């Protein structure tokens, strides 16, 4: 039996989104990306988008209160009842605690946190290249380095948080998309 209540954790550019997409296809459960939801809110010009836009452009984290609200609403939708792939949430210990509470309310729990391990410099190089192609305004090199720092300061502590919960699986993020996908499949099987 594959685990279906999953969290993909890792620094910016480690391939969380790509691996999440592959899991969506294989497992038929939704990807929950707070980054995608926030970008959609910015594009739509909603109140939420207006509050998040400048923070995102700087590469800082939107407040726990905002993203926890977004995640709670999304996780409560019926397509999440068979499982979900969290991508980019939680990003702070506060968010992780809130997630535990949300899942408890749904009489559910996280089965596996897949932490993708990758080298910072290789990631910065990859993101600089991707920025040129996609034109994301939080992707100039200084902002990328800032997001990397924010990851190490605020998000990396989640590795220990989930290790202590006994649900952590670390996966080498180097090599091809297929090679990483194989390693991910192994740890969630
Ligand atoms: P991402 O696409 O996951 O890299 O997210 C893009 C940006 O959205 C981040 O740099 C943050 O500004 C914001 N964001 C996305 N998810 C979260 C989260 N869980 N907590 C705080 N900010 C977030």
Walk me through this protein's architecture.
Helix content is about 60%, strand content about 10%. It is of the alpha/beta class and about 190 residues long. The protein has one domain: Rossmann fold (3-Layer(aba) Sandwich). The chain has a five-stranded parallel sheet, with helices on both faces. The longest helix is centred in the last third of the chain and has 15 residues. The radius of gyration is 16 Å and the shape is globular. The termini are close together. Adenosine monophosphate binds next to α2 and α3.
Q: How does the overall form come out from the CA principal axes?
A: globular
How many angstroms separate the termini?
6 Å
**Bound heterogens, unique:** adenosine monophosphate
The CATH topology name reads: Rossmann fold
Which structural class is indicated by helix and strand composition? alpha/beta
Which strand-content bin applies to the residues? 5-15%
* Largest sheet strand order: 2-3-1-4-5
Second rung of CATH, namely the architecture: 3-Layer(aba) Sandwich
Keywords:
single chain, 189 residues, alpha/beta, Rossmann fold, five-stranded parallel sheet, binds adenosine monophosphate
Give a quick precis of the structure.
With 189 residues, the protein is α/β, with parallel strands linked by helices.
Secondary-structure blueprint of this entry?
Blueprint: E1 5-9, H1 16-27, E2 31-33, H2 34-44, H3 47-58, H4 64-75, E3 84-87, H5 93-105, E4 112-117, H6 120-134, H7 141-155, H8 157-165, E5 168-172, H9 177-188
Parallel strand pairs: 1-3, 1-4, 2-3, 4-5
Helix pairs in contact: 2-3, 4-5, 6-7
Residues 12, 34-35, 38, 55-56, 59-62, 67, 88-91, 95, 138, 147 line the site of adenosine monophosphate.
